[in-house]
Specification:
Helix 2 packs antiparallel against helix 11 and helix 12 runs parallel beside helix 16. The strands form five sheets. A five-stranded mixed beta sheet has the order 2-8-7-6-5, with helices on both faces. A three-stranded antiparallel beta sheet has the order 9-12-11. A two-stranded parallel sheet has the order 1-10. The protein contains 16 helices and 14 strands. Helix content is 40%, strand content 12%. By secondary structure, the protein is an alpha/beta fold. The structure holds ligand F0G. The site of ligand F0G has 15 residues, from helix 4 and helix 5.
C-alpha cells in the first residue's frame, strides 16, 4: 500500500486555543458591530483572516534570532539577508523595509509620478493604493478566465498580453514607468502566473522598453505551481525556478510576511544601481538606515533562514497541498469554491452559496458572519464591502465576485482544523435556503471601509 502523505516537520511549541460557545460568539460579534476585524484573537478559534505574518517559524529561525546583530549600521544579520536575497532572486541590490507596502512606498516614490499608468495582473490593494496615492492609475491586464470561479485554468494569474500591448500602444513610454506582475496573484484568488507567461510578458516589455517589477509576496508558492503544472519545469528545483522567474524582471517588492516565513518584514531587490541609490534616500526617510530599514537585526536573520526554507519543495508541498486538502473537503460537500484552488487560500463563492440573500444585503459578509457565529472560524469578505462605494455616485459597487476568503497561515494548523472548517461550512450549506436576509451598514468610513464598518443584522 502506498504510504499516505505526512508533513515534513513536527511541532515543538503549541499555542492553546479557546473553544468558545455559540452563545459567547453571538454576544462578541454583536459587540464587534458584526465586523470580524473588531474581534479579539482570543474570541477566534481558527483564524483564516490572513496568511500574512501569521505563520509559525522553525527552530532554525528562532535560533537565528538569538544571534541577530542589532547594530544600527553594518549589521551582520543584514549581510546574511542580503546574501540570501541575492542568491535566491539574482538581484544585485537590496533594501530592507518593515513590510511589503513599505517596499512599495519606497520604490514607487522613485518610479511613479502624477498621470502615470502602471499596468499589472490585478494589483494588490496596497500596490494600487500606492499608485493611486501618487495620482497615477493601475490598469488591470489579467486574463479573463481569472474572473470565473468555475473555469479551470492552470495559471489564472497570467497577464493578458493583448490587453498589455493595448496599454503600451495607447500611452507614451514616458507615462508607463513599469509593469507589476504579482506572483501569485492574490486578488485573482492566489492564482499563479506561468513561466511561459512571465517570459512572454518580459519580452513584450523589452520590446516597448518598459521595466518589469514583481510583487513577489508569494513567489515560492508560484514557483511550486510552475513545477507542478508546467511540464518543462517538473525536474527543476524551486530555487532554480525562482531564479529564472526573477531573471525576467528588473526587480521586486516583497512582503516577507508571506513567503519569507516571518511575522514582520519586507524588502526591495533590484538590478539598477541608479534606482537603488534613489530608493536608498526614501528608505532612510521612511523606514530607517539602509542596513535595517525598519527591521530588527534578529528579524533579518530569521528572514534569511525563512527564505531558504520557503524555497524548499517539501515545505511548499505541505503548504500548498494543505490548502488544496481544504478545497477538496469543501467540494466533497458541494460547497462552491474557486477553481483551481489558490496557493494560500480557498475562496468561497457567496453568490452561488447564498443567492437567496439580496446582494444589497452583502452575501459574502453574511456568510462570513454565519461561519464565525456557528463555528468560531474567522475568514474575510472579498466582496461589496471591500469594493467600497463609487467615488462619484457614492453607490455601492457590486463586484462580479462575492467571495469569502479563508487564508491558511503557514505551518500553523493541522488537517483536523481543515476538516473542522469544511464541516462548519457544510452545515451552513445544508441550511442555506433558509437564509433570506443579510446585514445593513450603520456606520462607514469614506474609503477602505471594510476594516471599520459597523453593521447590523436585518
Ligand atoms: N502584495 C501582495 C500580493 C499582498 O498580498 C500583500 C499583503 C502586500 C503586497 C502588502 O504587504 O501586508 O506586508 O504590507 N497581503 C495581506 C493579505 C495583507 O491578507 O493578503 P504587507
Amino acid at each position: 500500500m502506498k504510504l499516505p502523505y505526512a508533513e515534513p516537520y513536527k511541532i515543538k511549541v503549541v499555542e492553546p486555543l479557546y473553544r468558545s460557545t455559540q452563545t459567547e460568539r453571538e454576544q462578541w460579534i454583536k459587540e464587534a458591530h458584526y465586523n470580524l476585524f473588531n474581534l479579539k484573537s482570543s474570541q477566534v478559534f481558527i483564524d483564516c483572516l490572513t496568511d500574512s505574518g501569521t505563520g509559525a517559524m522553525s527552530d532554525r529561525q528562532w535560533a537565528e534570532m538569538m544571534v541577530g546583530d542589532e547594530s544600527y549600521a553594518g549589521s551582520r544579520s543584514f549581510d546574511k539577508l542580503k546574501e540570501t536575497v541575492r542568491r535566491i532572486t539574482g538581484y544585485e541590490y537590496f533594501l530592507p523595509t518593515h513590510q511589503g507596502r513599505a517596499a512599495e512606498n519606497v520604490l514607487f516614490s522613485v518610479l511613479v509620478k502624477e498621470g502615470d499608468i502602471v499596468p499589472g495582473n490585478s494589483h494588490f490593494d496596497t500596490t494600487k493604493g500606492h499608485i493611486e496615492f501618487r495620482k497615477a492609475s493601475a490598469v488591470d491586464c489579467t486574463i479573463d478566465e481569472a474572473f470565473d470561479t468555475a473555469v479551470y485554468h492552470p495559471f489564472k494569474g497570467n497577464v493578458d498580453l493583448e490587453k498589455l500591448e493595448k496599454v503600451f500602444k495607447k500611452y507614451p513610454k514616458e507615462k508607463i514607468p513599469f509593469i507589476v506582475v504579482t506572483v501569485t496573484c492574490n486578488t485573482a484568488g492566489g492564482q499563479p502566473v506561468s513561466m511561459e507567461n512571465i517570459k512572454a510578458t518580459s519580452a513584450l516589455c523589452k520590446q516597448y522598453g518598459i521595466p518589469l517589477y514583481f510583487d513577489a509576496a508569494r513567489f515560492a508558492e508560484n514557483a511550486y505551481f510552475i513545477k507542478k503544472r508546467e511540464e518543462a519545469y517538473a525536474d527543476k528545483t524551486i530555487k532554480e525556478i525562482a531564479l529564472e522567474m526573477f531573471s525576467y524582471g528588473d526587480g521586486m517588492t516583497m512582503s516577507a510576511k508571506k513567503d519569507g516565513l516571518v511575522n514582520m518584514g519586507g524588502f526591495i531587490a533590484l538590478n539598477s544601481h541608479d534606482i537603488f541609490k534613489k530608493a536608498s534616500v526614501f528608505n532612510i526617510m521612511f523606514e530607517g538606515f539602509i542596513t535595517y530599514g525598519g527591521m530588527n537585526g534578529r528579524d533579518m536573520g530569521a528572514l534569511a533562514v525563512g527564505l531558504d526554507e520557503a524555497t524548499e519543495f517539501d515545505y511548499l508541498e505541505s503548504r500548498v497541498e494543505q490548502v488544496a486538502y481544504l478545497g477538496q473537503r469543501l467540494e466533497y460537500f458541494k460547497v462552491p469554491v474557486q477553481h483551481p484552488y489558490g496557493g494560500h487560500a480557498i475562496f468561497i463563492d457567496a453568490n452561488k452559496f447564498v443567492p437567496t440573500i439580496p446582494k444589497e444585503e452583502f452575501r459574502a459578509w453574511s456568510l462570513a458572519m454565519e461561519l464565525y457565529i456557528t463555528s468560531g472560524i474567522r475568514g474575510v469578505e472579498i466582496g461589496t464591502i471591500l469594493a467600497d462605494r463609487d467615488p462619484i455616485t457614492r453607490k455601492n459597487r457590486f463586484p462580479e465576485l462575492e467571495l469569502v476568503r479563508l487564508a491558511i497561515p503557514r505551518r500553523t494548523y493541522t488537517n483536523h482544523h481543515m476538516d473542522y472548517i469544511a464541516v462548519a461550512l457544510k452545515n451552513i450549506f445544508d441550511t442555506r435556503t433558509e437564509a433570506k436576509h443579510g446585514y445593513r451598514i450603520i456606520e462607514e468610513a469614506p474609503i477602505m471601509r471594510h476594516f471599520t464598518v459597523k453593521m447590523e443584522k436585518i
